[in-house]
Write the structure tokens for this entry.
Amino acid sequence: MENKLKHQPIIKELAPGVKQIQNIRQSNSALSYIEFQILELEKGASYKETGSQQEVCIVILTGKIKVKAADTWYEDLGTRESVFEKIPTDSIYLPAEHSFELVATTGNVRLALCYSPAKKALPISVIRAEDNTVEERGLYQNKRLVHNILPDNVDTASSLLVVEVYTEGGNFSSYPPHKHDQENLPHESFLEETYYHELDPEQGFVFQRVYTEDRSLDETMTVEHQNVVEVPKGYHPVGVPDGYTSYYLNVMAGPERIWKFHNEKKHEWILQRK
């Protein structure tokens, strides 16, 4: 049975030295608020986009780039050769109607391009690694390391929320299962979500389940390196097998830029442990 929510790498050459690894659009997903790309660039390769009604956050997963927007070059973006160095990276936020060009200034460049319809005009913003807030969350087999790139307590973006999460083998994350699929503030917000996964070593896999309260959606997936899982609604926990480290980049967006989630009640006792 084909998974409807899991996207495997496509590996398409867009231009000399530019490969598209993932391309999540409204046309090939169940999402209305999020679009998403993963690109890989060789040193010296360039990529351009024309501005639209979407805001864009470019996360430099590996390598270094420079970006030109509004006649200004933003230089020396990127901090690591592997996401598994577990150090924060640089990103750049581009508001709607801003065309851009980016150039790989090193080899081994991998980029995540996160898109959502803009709600208001904001300035271009470089989000340096030191601007990320870093958190260690959870206890027992529920521990993970979090880098907040665009959290909801900063007003850098009008729609996008972006975060990196590391989970060691034998642990669960996005757990106990939680969801954010109701416009019921202040108790719960409606946010779609994507998970871009990487594994160390690369031959590994994780398990991710996406399911609703009534089980009208209930899909459990074996997720491999560079897969994307879309979460249009429902709970969405991730489990990591022993011996492997999981990395994922989360993108969230919805009617309001507020992250208010609801834990599945029957599993909420997990949070009460000392």
